[in-house]
Structure formats: structure tokens, C-alpha cells
Amino acid sequence: MTPIVPGQPAKILLVDDRHDNLVALEAMLQGLPVQAVTADSGDAALKQLLKGDFALILLDAHMPGMDGFETAAHIKSRERTRQIPIIFLTAADRDARLALRGYAAGAVDYMTKPFDPWVLRAKVSILVEMYLKSEHIGVLARQLAQLEETVGKTLAVLAENPPTEAVKLATELLQAAIRDADTP
């Protein structure tokens, strides 16, 4: 797992068997606070997911070999990746059954080409923002847990030591907790 670094762009995985589609997607997403990682097949996408954390997956529904639906099923079956939102992208006709199949595979959206790049950008922006906020909440929760542990230790020190020694030790522990809480 790759830790989230504050201020760094969120990684999104672009999956399409056609190189020109990947290039077009990267161009549409230029200027957004994202780092695009590309994969040209379902297998390549699953390998990328083993290498790091992703905020979002843009997944072509129709690819040779493992199609997008099967790829999504593998992604959603893994504990580590099942929460990653997937937007299916397809050049197929607007058959409602295909869209339902995409949603059944775990997608949060299903877009048919040609689609409005500004709509895609808006959807990507919202999902990335939600991801970053969720990651920030996780960081805050870990900091709170550390602080609670330090307070517990401090209370134990106060209960077991004479008042003057206890105050000195408690002060040192609380100062250390404050320093640790300030570092991300």
C-alpha cells in the first residue's frame, strides 16, 4: 500500500485496451489534482492495484480477454480494493442492460461514448475529493488514537507516582503527544 501524502495528487487508474483512448482520457483530466496511471487490459489493471492505492478507476467495459465487467468483479472481490469507485466507459450502444450489468458489477457510474469531457471531469473531481476527505479523516482518527493512548499513559503515571515526579513525567508525555500530533 502506498501512503497518502498530503498535497500530492490522488492516483486514478485508467483502463482501456486502446492506447488512443488512454491518451484522450489523460488529456481530459489535465489540470485536475490527479495522477493518472494507465493499464491496457484487465490483467494489467489488477497488477497496478497491487502496487498502490487509487482514488478511482475509469474502466473500459469492452476489452479483449478479461473485459471490464470481469475486471470489476475481481476488483470488488478483494478486500483491499472493493471500496474503490469504478466508472465504466464504453463505446457500446446505450443498451440499458449493459448499464445495469455495470452497476451490478459494482460501478458507481456508466458512461457511453461519446461523452461530455466536462461531465467526466466533474464526476472525477467529486469522487477524488471524497477520497481525499476520507483519507484525511483516517489520518485524524489515527492521531486521535495516539493522543488517547498518551493520555491513558499519563493518567497511569499520575496514579502510580508521587505528585512532583508524576507532574514532571506527565508534562513530558503530554509535550511529546503534542509534538507527535503536529506531524502528519
TrEMBL record:
GO biological process, alphabetically ordered: phosphorelay signal transduction system
Keywords: Phosphoprotein
PROSITE patterns per UniProt: RESPONSE_REGULATORY
Matching InterPro entries: Bact_response_regulator, CheY-like_superfamily, Sig_transdc_resp-reg_receiver
PANTHER family according to UniProt: RESPONSE REGULATORY DOMAIN-CONTAINING PROTEIN, STRESS RESPONSE REGULATOR PROTEIN 1
Pfam short name (any one): Response_reg
Organism of origin: Allocatelliglobosispora scoriae
PTM-bearing positions, type 4-aspartylphosphate: 60
Protein name per its UniProtKB record: CheY-like chemotaxis protein
Start and end residues of each Response regulatory domain: 11-128
SUPFAM superfamilies xrefs: CheY-like
